[in-house]
Amino acid sequence: MAPTPDDHADPFTPPQPEQARAERVYASLFRIAQRHATSEEQRRRQIHPSVIGPHEAIRLVSFLLSGAAQLDDGEPEVDHTDITAALSLVPLARGEMDELEAGLLQMARGRGMTWNEIAFGLGLGTPQAARQRYERLAGRTD
Fold it and tell me: I need a labelling partner for 10 at 20 to 30 A (CA). Which of 35, 59, 92, 117 fits?
């Protein structure tokens, strides 16, 4: 069978890094779910048992507003105050994500990963970009 323009083997078609990144994101979610989140108990390890986290609250309001999640019977509609509350949590959630990313980068380096490997995982073009990203994150989270 002759290669088509959509084949990655076609030397005349430039690579599509965004498509490869999207495929890697899906594969990453699938891998982690299959290895570390196969049961309800495993999935709950990172969730506080009685308090919703900032990122969960933001996602919940977003999902309810978009229709991706449905309200339960008797649950109030999402109003402007709910939206304002979710928006108020964005800086906190962003800060938590920065701390998680900085910690993950430190642990990756501690496990022997190179900046080139880390850059690939982050979807960055160069090892220098990955190192600079870590330095910015470390500066913000200190």
Answer: 117
